[in-house]
Amino acid sequence: MWNDRYAEEGFAYGTQANSFLIENQTRLPKGRVLCIAEGEGRNAVFLAEQGYEVVAVDASAVGLEKAQRLAATRNVKIETIVADLSHFKIEAGNWDAIVSIFCHIPPAIRLDIHKQVCDGLKKDGVFLLEAYRPAQLEFKTGGPPTAEFMMTLEALKNELEPLKMMHGEEIVREIVEGKYHTGAGAVVQFIASK
Asked: Which three-class secondary structure string do you get for the chain?
């Protein structure tokens, strides 16, 4: 599915980084950043432009090829890894920050990834996430078709419990990110440190 979507002309979610990430980028410690489910690379490229050393992981080779092309047009370098998150291992104590923007995966895989996020951050490392929550099903402006792939603030607090929450909010906001995320969206935003 993702290779097909990313094979379409243009960028499915645009070339500009997620606005929540842009607004909060300064809260991420400088250093190595892991972007999970990074797709066509808009967030990874933005972070590389800010001076971070970025590794982008996604299951779609097509998306990550576009990410490399986008990085080249912006004169920055990113590392890309093609991997299904159900098989990817986040190296413990290796990351200054981990970023998850609209990473909607089955709950069992998400629980495992979030445990790995907690282990993968260095001391004082920061995790930043924005995702759709179940109320998004009423808006139909993007995101997965079922609530089980979405997140709530309460669930995130539990799944990421070892981390110290710096920001947590459930809101409805206007999202303009390419043709697949456009319009009012019900999201959860979460920033936490180790």
From this structure: CHHHHHHCCCCCCCCCCCHHHHHHHHHCCCCEEEEECCCCCHHHHHHHHCCCEEEEEECCHHHHHHHHHHHHHCCCCCEEEECCCCCCCCCCCCEEEEEEECCCCCHHHHHHHHHHHHHHEEEEEEEEEEEECCCHHHHCCCCCCCHHHCCCHHHHHHHCCCCEEEEEEEEEEEEEECCCEEEEEEEEEEEEEC
